[in-house]
Automatic annotation (TrEMBL), chain B:
Coiled coil: none annotated. InterPro entries: FecR, FecR_N, Ferrdict_sens_TM. Transmembrane segments: none annotated. Residues 18-59 form the FecR N-terminal domain. This is FecR family protein. Pfam families: DUF4880, FecR. Residues 116-209 form the FecR protein domain.
Length: 169, 322
């Protein structure tokens, strides 16, 4: 949807980018994904990313730029599907009375996807420390021993991870 | 004069957020002392701004509690780029997955997921409360702590807890446990509270406890060594304690117990389901079994009784007659 306040030149630039590149990008994604609907969605999302970001590629770099974004989106999609699958698998192992309602499932899955993003951008040691504390219920001394670091370092890592959660969750 | 004040509030907010982060990291250590807990509560009660900042932290806590441990394991290993590329080639396959999941509503589920303290299947946890009381949580348990100026209330949403109360030195507030079936108020005491589907079972081990049904029409003082059931509109007759507190020692104790009841009990500690044929449900089991190693318990059953155990997967076990 074009922003009414958007500069005319920018709009023309985007129009040019879309008309010259949408066709091949869609075809390229279809080959990669072997599902035409997903490919069409990702092609749209790719252009949406370009519109949202302020970066405009030079004409000779447009193809490389668009493929780079599209690849990133495919990885996101893949991770999302993996997480959905893992979550649904977990649900199947619950006894019927333990299964959350569809609304709760949606909220939980959203939290899982967000948390996955948070963890993904943390350094490995910080991530591991946070998971051991929050998901394996180890105390800081136990984590320190297991990771071969000081309790002070555990606290420092937890501070970093918790801050990231506060900003992104 | 308005402007500088607005700026100083913004600065306060940022520094309070930093303080909240530090408190959260301390509270998550699993090694919190009573003094630290007190200090935190002092901090929290300082102003509404403090509480506002802390409520953001609570949102984070709640979101984390929603995430099942098994599904986050996937996120642990960041994929190296070569692996990513190969995985991308598999995307065509991954795109067709998904499908209907059987779903059943449960009204208390949300409270359970968002509770202050939570254990998952097979876990037990010890918690030191701000007043020095001690709370042991059994498998699959969710508790909210609601301490106020008037009372020390624990709300049990699911599972089982064992409480060792500390006297409230400064304010002499009563300590009580509330469930959907009623309340149990401690009278200087150690007691076990287990929320079952149709009743809440309270067993007193030291001192006494006063039980009151949810509709407040029935009450009863339960002495040490006795147990009774809370119902929304009634109380059951008091009887002597059995082995209700054996879980504290990591044991499941059975004395001529129906096998069906035994397996139901065992499945509380096991992720997934344990099904059994009706033909074996009335066999009797006796013994002391180690928790939380439910596989070992199932194996030892095979030695004692003419049974066969089928594993469809780790999460689906069926017990038949041999």
């Amino acid at each position: 949807m074009p922003d009414p306040g958007m500069h005319h030149g920018v709009q023309q630039q985007l129009h040019h980018l879309y008309s010259h590149h949408h066709g091949w990008l869609n075809a390229w994604l279809r080959k990669k994904l072997s599902c035409q609907h997903t490919a069409a969605d990702l092609a749209q999302d790719t252009f949406l990313r370009v519109i949202i970001s302020d970066r405009r590629p030079l004409p000779e770099q447009a193809r490389a730029y668009l493929t780079q974004i599209a690849k990133g989106l495919m990885i996101d999609l893949y991770r999302r599907q993996r997480l959905e699958l893992a979550y649904h698998e977990w649900l199947l192992h619950l006894s019927p009375v333990e299964v959350p309602s569809p609304e709760q499932q949606a909220v939980a899955l959203q939290s899982l996807i967000q948390l996955d993003k948070v963890l993904d951008q943390l350094p490995a040691k910080v991530r591991e420390t946070f998971i051991l504390s929050r998901f394996e219920q180890l105390t800081y001394s136990q984590i320190a021993k297991r990771q071969g670091i000081s309790v002070g370092a555990v606290r420092k890592y937890m501070l970093k991870a918790t801050q990231a959660c506060l900003e992104m969750l | 004069m308005n402007q500088p004040q607005a700026i100083s509030t913004a600065v306060d907010y940022v520094s309070l957020q930093q303080e909240a982060l530090e408190w959260q990291v301390m509270l998550w250590s699993g090694e919190v002392t009573t003094e630290q807990q007190h200090a935190f509560e002092g901090w929290l009660s300082r102003s509404t701004l403090h509480q506002q900042v802390w409520s953001e932290m609570k949102t984070v806590q709640q979101k984390l509690q929603l995430v099942p441990q098994t599904s986050i394991v996937l996120a642990r290993d960041k994929l190296p780029s070569a692996k990513r590329r190969r995985l991308l080639q598999m995307l065509g396959l991954a795109a067709v997955t998904g499908g209907a999941v059987p779903v059943l509503r449960q009204s208390e589920a949300w409270q359970t997921l968002a509770a202050d303290y939570r254990t998952y299947t097979g876990q037990q946890e010890k918690i030191q409360l701000a007043d020095g009381s001690q709370l042991m949580m059994n498998t699959s348990t969710a508790v909210d702590i609601a301490f106020s100026a008037r009372e020390r209330k624990l709300v049990l949403h699911e599972g089982e807890i064992y409480i060792t109360t500390a006297p409230d030195v400064t304010q002499a507030r009563p300590l009580l446990v509330q469930t959907r079936h009623g309340t149990a108020t401690a009278l200087g005491t150690q007691f076990n509270v287990r929320l079952k589907q149709h009743e809440t079972r309270v067993s007193v081990y030291e001192g006494a406890a006063k039980l009151q049904s949810y509709n407040r029409l029935h009450s009863l003082t339960l002495a040490s060594g006795m147990q009774a059931g809370l119902l929304p509109g009634a109380l059951t007759t008091a009887t002597s304690n059995g082995n209700e507190s054996a879980w504290l020692d990591g044991k499941l104790v059975a004395e001529q117990l129906r096998l069906g009841d035994f397996l139901d009990e065992l499945s509380r500690y096991r992720v997934g389901v344990i099904r059994y044929d009706q033909s074996v449900a009335n066999m009797r089991v006796s013994g002391v079994f180690p928790l939380p190693d439910t596989d070992r318990v199932l194996q030892s059953l095979l030695q004692a009784l003419p049974l066969r155990v089928d594993y469809f997967s780790r999460y689906w076990v069926t017990v038949h007659a041999a």
